[in-house]
Write a structure and sequence with these properties.
single chain, two-stranded antiparallel sheet, 475 residues
């Protein structure tokens, strides 16, 4: 929503308090400094139950044909005990450990060792070295944007090795899915623990660290804003985008290959899921430079929430539709398939165009046209922890005049399309739309709380002009 402008003269930049009736709140954007009881209860709940939720969903598919109720019924009626279910759960294997280690190592190599070349021959693509947003401490980090390149190289090697050289089966991910889950958990907990230790003893930028004094909150939400090793390995950018999102399309392709192996065909519902989610993944990497301006990079610290979430939650629960369709192949009628495809495309169009409008507005410093007219905006200011004053503009035109997070509305429409492709026999594939609705609604509220702390009265002026968050006239 915002576009950063040039800083004012030095006497203004050195001013230590705001003139915007925000007092010290301007230097406190980002995650919380203090923990209330509700936040602590939420953190403890997620730390205890999020890993169990992932296990429960994957186990339900492996042992109960994707029924979420039958495991509970078996346990409540005494037909089975927890030990019975656990005994049937595949354990970690050396093969899975080797696959996962090779996978993560390969993504690190692509991230660190191959400067981007895609921006040199793809018109409109922004890659290579790019600057991120200003951190609360006033730091502007540089990033090597090469996610699209990593995605292309990875998928070319996947198809060559699976279908031409036959070094491995294209179903390899599905065949090792639960053993790989344990490996992903190990990495998720390891990187989260390392990030916390690093935040205490050798942070990249101490001024961008936040300590609440509560171990559980700091572990989950993170201490360091932008933990790095060396100049270029940025934990947040790597784990948010690689290895989980690069793997997303490979996981779906493995599901499609398994469906072909089991039933002799790939259903149109599986094709829909692969296409719609593939578009979403490619969009992420095509616009990776824009991602540097999003809430994940601009506000979230790096802790268990991102570290474990990107390693485990994302690849295992964002791909439930494809996993479900392996166990329950659905062949949609042509009208239904076309309708779902249209819904997915409309959702993507809204998501992409809303983000494009904001990006264009930011890149041109509002010197552009939105829907054929010069954009309208609210001018605002904020301060970093060192007292430097910055100026921004909050757009109130185009989709951003309809709702403050209308890109999320498009995202939810696309999410619903993924779920509808699976039919209505089970509720498991609909977890995604329920989760995304909760996540994005919470993100709206969380983002706006931070923006209020950051912009003060200017944010109140903005919300008076654009009163709705997601749905115009409703919410």
């Amino acid at each position: 929503m915002g576009v950063q402008q040039e800083k004012k003269p030095s006497e203004e930049r050195k001013h230590k308090s705001t003139q915007n009736d925000t007092q010290t709140s301007q230097v406190q954007w980002g995650r919380a400094w203090e923990v209330d009881w509700f936040s602590l209860a939420s953190v403890l709940f997620l730390l205890m139950f999020a890993p169990l939720i992932v296990y429960y969903f994957i186990m339900s598919c492996d042992q109960y044909q994707c029924s979420l109720m039958n495991p509970l019924i078996d346990l409540l009626t005494g037909n089975k005990h927890l030990s019975d279910i656990w005994k049937k759960t595949p354990m970690p294997t050396y093969r899975a450990a080797g696959i996962y280690t090779l996978w993560v190592t390969f993504q690190v190599v692509l991230y660190m060792c191959l400067p981007d070349f895609c921006h040199k021959f793809l018109p409109g693509y922004v890659g290579g070295v790019q600057e991120g947003a200003v951190t609360p401490a006033g730091v502007v980090n540089k990033y090597e944007i090469n996610g699209l390149q990593a995605w292309i190289i990875t998928h070319m090697l996947w198809f060559a090795n699976a279908y031409y050289f036959h070094y491995f089966s294209p179903t390899i991910i599905f065949d090792n899915w639960i053993p790989l889950m344990w490996c992903a958990n190990i990495l998720g907990y390891a990187v989260s623990t390392f990030a916390m230790i690093k935040g205490y003893f050798f942070p990249t930028n101490r001024k961008d660290c936040k300590f609440t004094g509560n171990f559980f909150y700091d572990y989950m939400m993170g201490i360091e804003f932008n933990p790095r090793i060396g100049k270029w390995f940025d934990f947040k950018l790597f784990f948010n985008g690689r290895p989980g999102i690069v793997a997303w399309t490979l996981i779906n392709l493995s599901y499609a290959a398994k469906q072909q192996e089991l039933y002799g065909q790939v259903t149109n519902s599986m094709i829909l899921v692969n296409v719609l989610q593939g578009i979403y993944v490619l969009d992420f990497f095509w616009n990776e430079a824009w991602y540097l301006k999003t809430i994940d990079i601009c506000h979230d610290h790096f802790g268990w929430y991102l570290g474990w979430g990107d390693c485990v939650w994302l690849p295992y629960l964002y791909t439930l539709q494809g996993l479900y369709l392996v166990y329950h192949p659905v062949q949609l009628g042509t009208p239904n398939a076309i309708g779902i495809l249209i819904l997915g495309f409309i959702g993507y169009y809204i998501f992409r165009m809303a983000n494009h409008q904001k990006d264009l507005f930011r890149r041109t410093n509002s010197n552009c046209k939105i829907w054929g007219k010069k954009p309208e905006y609210i001018e605002c200011s904020y301060m970093s922890v060192d007292g430097t004053k910055y100026y921004s503009k909050l757009m109130t035109s185009g989709f951003w005049g309809w709702a403050r997070h209308f890109n999320y509305t498009g995202d939810l429409m696309g999410s619903l399309a993924y779920c509808l492709a699976c039919g209505f026999e089970h509720i498991l594939p609909y977890f995604y739309i329920v989760y995304m609705t909760i996540l994005l609604t919470h993100r709206c509220i969380r983002d706006e709380h931070r923006c209020l702390s950051k912009y003060g009265k200017d944010w109140k002026r903005y919300t008076a002009v654009v009163p709705y968050r997601l749905l115009p006239g409703v919410f």
